[in-house]
Amino acid sequence: MDFGSQRRRHRSIQRALVPEYILDVGSQRLFMISLFGLIQAWKVYDIMILKNENLRELLSNDSWISFSIPELNFVVKYLILDGLFLWCLPVLKIPLLNFSILTTLIQITLMAAITIILSSDMSMPLTGLLMSFWNLFFPKKELAILEDYIPTAEFEDQSPHLKGRTTIKYLPDSSAKLNPFYELHCMTNIYTDKIQMPIRFNSTSNLEFVQLEYRSFSNEISYLNYTKKDLRRMLNRDSTELFKKEYAFNGNLYHSYRDDSNVISFIQVPLTQPGLYSLHQVYDSKLKRVRIAKNDVFIVSCPSAQLYNTKPDLHYCVGENQEVSAKIFGVPPLKVVYHAEIGNKLLNTNSVDIIDEDVETPLTKLQGLELSEQALKISTSIDKRKSLEWARTKSFTAPLARGKIDESGSYIYTLHQVIDGFGNRVNYVPEVANNNLFYQFEAHPIIKGDLEEKDKKLVILQGSPKDLLVSLDISNAKKEAPYTVEIEFTSEDKKTKDIITKVFEASQVTRNKLPFQVNSPGTYTLKSIKSKHCQGEVGPSILTVTEAFAPSLNISSNPILDACIGTTGYKFDLQFLGTPPFEVDYKVYRLDSQNPNRVLTTKDVSTIIANSNNEVFNYEPNTEGTYAIEFIGIRDKHYKKLPRLEKGKHRYTTYLKQRTRAGFVQDKKLQDVCNGDSASVLIKFDGKPPYKVNYEISDPLNQSQNFTVDSIMGNEYTIEMKDLLQGGTYNIKLLDVKDESNCDVVFQKSHVRVNVREHKPHLQFGNGGKFEIVEGQTLNIPLKSDAERSIALYYTITDPNDPSLVKHKRISNLNPNKGLSVKSRGIYRLVGFNESVCPGIISSDSEVEISYKKKPSLKVLPSKDTIVGDNTNSWKLTPFCQGKKGYLDLLLEGEAPFFIEYTIKHPGGFLESKLDTTSRKKFSISLRSDIGGDYLYTILGIYDSVYFKSAIKELEKQSAYKFDPISIEHHVYPLPDARFITDRDTPEHHNPHLQVDKRFASFSRSSIYQTCLSNLNKRSLLRPLSISLSGQAPFQLKLKLFHEKSNSEEFVYLSDLPHEVEYYDIYSSLDIGNHVVSIVEVTDSGRCKQSDFTEHEMVAIHVNDIPKIEQISTFSKDSESLGDDERNYCVGDQVAYSLSGVPPFKISYEFDGISQVAEVNKKTFKRRAYRPGKLTIASISDSSSKDCLVQLQDRTDLEAVIYDIPSVEMTTGDSYLEGIHEGDKVELIFKLTGSPPFTLKYVRTDLRGKHANKEVLENIMDHEVRVWANMEGNYEPIEIQDAHCKAEKKVY
Q1: Gap between the Cα atoms of 1159 and 1179, Å rounded
Q2: What separation in angstroms does the CA of 552 have from each of 374, 583, 586, 587, 1142?
Q3: CA-based Rg of the chain, rounded to a whole angstrom?
Q4: How far apart are CA 788 and CA 785, in angstroms?
Q5: Which residues does 114 contact at the CB level (< 8 Å), separation at least 6?
Q6: In what helix (H) or strand (E) does residue 330 lie, and over which residues does it extend?
Q7: For a 10 Å CB count at each end of the chain, is N or C smaller?
């Protein structure tokens, strides 16, 4: 059974919001993960900027979230981005990314916590790490004195000034070690295998002789000797892999180069016999004995295992015993690992431990240790002086599985691993073809059989077999086929017994059933059943089959006689033999009375169903004539297909007569009769005339009268009823009818009724007179009538303005109780009506008049401000200034409340639609004057409480009404306006680098004027105050001038101004500081005044002092100047000046004869000194005005001198290894560069780089110094200092 496929079938399928035919799920998932990674990369970029003091303000300037604190900007920004992404992600329903609400909330909380931690000081270690990666790919750079960018790391790293390192190391004693990596070794085949055993030597001398001691497991000792020639051959072999193991064993990385001292070397000796090996003697080329590390090595045969089974058959039955064992070879204690599976389902991974109880072995104590530790213990702790019999390879048999089989299916046992006592492991890959590692057998279920019948009838028919079944209680019956079944048969008379044996193949198994047939009645017993491999169980299966006899029929007939006409039919008595229910088929033939052999008609076969052995059947035809009835077939419960009965044996022929029939033929029109009309009723006969009829008529008062009519020769007769004036129901009933034989007839319909109306109906209007209606709507005029049902009405409509115009109308199906619906005006007269077939009577009140209600209207009321146009539908109003109030008066007619619909077209072209409501006859429209220009008011319609908008629109569609729109034109003079022109200044006055004062934060940059104090009287150097005026010239202007320094204000009045003004005189009253000029009021020639000005109609004028510059000290922590003059610097220091004025500044300076111009946006001028030289400041200017320039050539206090950094280098190079014996010494030489006197500091550390000892050499006047050293360790310079500067390493 494939459980994986079942899980896949039952696994629910997630359907993404975006269908896969648009974008597959994998691409959706990749897109969303990439988007999340992009957001996090953006976050890392922002945190880099946030932690940089020079760039952190960018987060505030460029962010779409404006908080004053950059950290708060960062947190809010990414709380929103992360939260929106994680909250919207489950909406897309992408598989593997469709998280629950709880998981999403946890993710949002976690990301919020990370964002907050990153923005706080807690993130400094992480930020430092990120900054390190950032600086690796994007190194930090600074501006140097010559205006080029130099990487900052070049100045921070002073290691190029402190070069060289010498290592002094003592040479070690020689040593040798067998199997240095404590590896396990075993031989698969002791006759052909060779094990290359490594020996590690630690010696500065060459090897001369090596001797190995070999001890067999029977404690026999021999020696293996290797001379200098053998060793040289072994040393020449490639030992790269051994060196890799050496480095890995010591926890180091392998390098392709060898140690120059050649201290470590390896050889590999071939070992061919199992036993115990150890190094006995080793000599070097000086014939000095090399120290041997104790490390004995055991070589044993590799362990092995194989499966075997005592039963050769590969098939078992459930309940049988199984036994699976393994033969194992190796050194105990042994462990074998195997797998057991049933039906492709892994039950478990088992292991069997095998211990040799007859022999005591030291390996038992080592079980459970790591392999390396176990090998170390074996190599160093086993006493080789004792017997080694415990290390011999032995054979064992271990049972893996035994006991009864409880479950059917495929059983598989596989060997996977065997481990001996030394830890040697042999892994197997089982294959079906390898019987030693793979063993499989099938366990078959025990089937249970039961005997059944197929059709649930324990009878057998004559000449037909009976179907029986053997049912199997098993899930997959075909798999266990073929089946052998034994059935015992006993005849009904108990005289015959027989055993029936049947074999069923898989193709004969149908739905766990084994079908077979029997031909004889009797008792059938299931005795045994067996599948292909297993004997089955038998249930209480006994079936008794009886024989059913074929049915037979015996018929006796008797005629049905009538005293008056003779034979009218037949009565048949049917006698059956067989098993009910019975079915008898018969046919009826109508014959020619003159020739009985001639068949006129034949009816279809009919069937008689009898539930017992006796049945009575009567046959009487509907018409008179010669008939033959023949019984043709019989069936019972068991026999459904039998031969027909003998033809003609059960055929009965005779002439059958019929009684005369009579009855009313009812006409539906006679059901209802108008009062005073006549009625007639028709009687029809079917027989032989003459006829005699006796009938009775009862009137509505229940008064009856009998009538008799003789000698009716035809087959029809009509009863006439004249002048029925009595309203109600008349009943006509046949009492007696005789034909020529004076026999009674059969009545088919002997009773009819005639309904007579009580009186004639009347009709009139319920309310006469005149009615008003809304044109287009319907009015229902009530009617008075005593009619009992719907009527057909005739009426006329006369035009009241022209009586000659008359319309004739007819309504065919009108309910008078609901009244007459009218929609058009006119005089309505009732002419006549009918109720069913009865005409009605129109009463005197038969006329009403309908008229329309008056429609609403309006007109404009003239005033002194109203000018009539070309007609009453076109008007003009007197113009006025913007902001003034005015009204347009209208007079309304109709029924209040009124609804006025109009539009207002504004000067900008905007069309405003309005619908106002009022209950007064006079209505005023408020005139618009928000802005200047032409307004057009158009009145589109008027509606009232009677004629709604929908009613008016419907009349307009029918062309029954039209409203002529009224247009009113009105011009509004715009108010004059004034504004400062700040965006058309000449280039020399425009300052793109303007630094805005915080007090003028609301001003645009172009609205801030700056100049120097010295330029106030120089018109050509000033920026004019440009003012634009709109309206009707000339203008009068009022300005307000505010002085911030004195906190005072003054007003300036200007008159007779054109549309544009350039005003310079404003500067004459200004001093150093901030000044604000604002527009107060402007008036045009039309006396329209504007005094509503906002802060946008004001400018700021900032009068600055001349710029200044001073030198400040900013020495580098890593390269400190040692002179007393603060104007002296070292390479790597920053030369800095403080600036005062309006940034940006332009600074001209000279460095070593090279002139430079720098533009500075801050009030500090800093440059990194990256080479020696002299710096002189020439001039400075700021942004307050184009000519604010200060010459500084005579300022010696602004000069700066830069000195180079001293250097030291060891003559041995960057890294030098000196190997000496203890007691020798080495000379260390340092070369110095710089200006003496020098101070040198160097350090000695141990070979692990720890425990530093510092030495200082002072007042060195030469450029070279020598020092003797005899201690083991690393020697390197860490600090050099000359007359001006110093360099040092911060490591120590």
Answers
A1: 12
A2: 101, 11, 15, 19, 135
A3: 64
A4: 9
A5: none
A6: strand 321-330
A7: N
* Ranges 54-63, 231-240, 564-573, 690-699: which has the least confidence: 54-63
Nearest-angstrom CA–CA distance, 360 and 785: 132
Q: Specify the pLDDT at position 369.
A: 58
What is the C-alpha separation between 435 and 433, in angstroms, rounded? 6
Alpha-carbon dihedral of residues 416, 420, 423, 429, nearest 10 degrees?
-20
Inter-residue contact 758 to 718 (CB < 8 Å): no
Q: What long-range pairs does 782-786 form, CB within 8 A, spacing at least 24?
A: 782/819, 783/816, 783/817, 783/819, 783/820, 784/816, 784/843, 785/761, 785/816, 785/817, 785/840, 786/761, 786/762
* 12-16, 216-220, 336-340: range with lowest mean pLDDT: 12-16
Q: Provide the residue type at 948 as one letter.
A: F
Of the candidates 122, 134, 131, the residue with the CA atom closest to the CA atom of residue 51: 131
From CA 113, how far away is CA 1213, in angstroms rounded? 52
Do the beta carbons of residue 984 and residue 1028 sit within 8 Å?
no
Strand order of the β-sheet with 841-842 is: 783-785, 762-765, 841-842
How do strand 1264-1269 and strand 1226-1233 relate by DSSP bridges? antiparallel
Of residues 1000, 1021, 1003, the one with CA closest to residue 1012: 1021
- Helix and strand totals (H; E) in the chain: 11, 94
Q: What is the SS3 string spanning 694-745?
A: EEEEECCCCCEEEEEEEEECCCEEEEEECCCCCCEEEEEEEEEEECCCCCEC
What the block records as the tokens of 83 is 């939260």
Tokens at 828, concatenated = 């309505």
**What domains are there in the chain, each with its CATH number?**
10-138 (no CATH), 162-166+1206-1288 (2.60.40), 173-301 (2.60.40), 304-444 (2.60.40.2550), 450-548 (2.60.40.10), 566-656 (2.60.40), 663-755 (2.60.40.10), 762-852 (2.60.40.2030), 857-973 (2.20.130), 977-1104 (2.60.40), 1108-1203 (2.60.40)
Q: pLDDT class for 27, splitting at 50, 70, 90?
A: confident
H helix or E strand, kind and range, residue 1191: strand 1189-1191
Position 139 confidence tier, pLDDT thresholds 50, 70, 90: low
Nearest to 796 by CA among 729, 722, 846, 734: 846
Q: Are 144 and 1202 in contact (CB under 8 A)?
A: no
Angstrom distance (rounded) from CA 207 to CA 150: 58
Reading the block at residue 1288, the tokens are 């040092």
Tokens 């996090």 belong to which residue?
40
Burial class of residue 136 (count of CB atoms within 10 Å of its CB; 0-12, 13-18, 19+) = exposed
HSE-up (13 A, CA, CB side) for residue 129: 4
β-bridge pairing 264-271 and 838-839: unpaired
CA angle 1254, 1257, 1260 (to 5 degrees): 155
